[in-house]
Amino acid sequence: MLHRSTLIYFCGKMGAGKSTESKKVAAERNAVLISEDEWLSKLYPNQITSFDDYIKYSAQLRPLIKNHVQNILRTGTSVVMDFPANTKKQREWFNHLSIEAKSESLLIYLKVNNALCIKQIVQRSIEQPSRAAFDNEEMFYQVTKYFEEPDKNETTNFELVVKNA
């Protein structure tokens, strides 16, 4: 009998370290890592130039990703999703995805203050100049307007990671 898989997903403001943490968790758990940024950049090269573009293409990607992830989970393999779970609606999507696949789920909330997020965004734009147009302080504040802090009662498994500058 296969062990029960786990869907692991992250909540945290832009620059909180979700991508870094997702890589670490995937390696620790020997899980499949699926990155929204990677899929979007391959499927829609040079087409995402604004936050509205991101919203549009991210929404188009979700149905494909949902089936793909559920198929992996049903094999007993855990999946780490480097996709934002920064609104209640997004977190509900992850919860339904895992319930439908009959897998466990784990929400990891990276609670990071704005100053550290911005510092990490600036560093990332230096290390990855191709992201500088999107990864900046102005975009941080635009995206953060939509952020909804999670409640540990939204899911059965919740992990809090606090980091401050």
TrEMBL record:
Pfam families tied to this protein: AAA_33
Highest taxon of the lineage: Bacteria
InterPro entries linked to this entry: P-loop_NTPase (IPR027417)
Protein name listed in UniProt: Cell division protein ZipA
Organism: Colwellia psychrerythraea
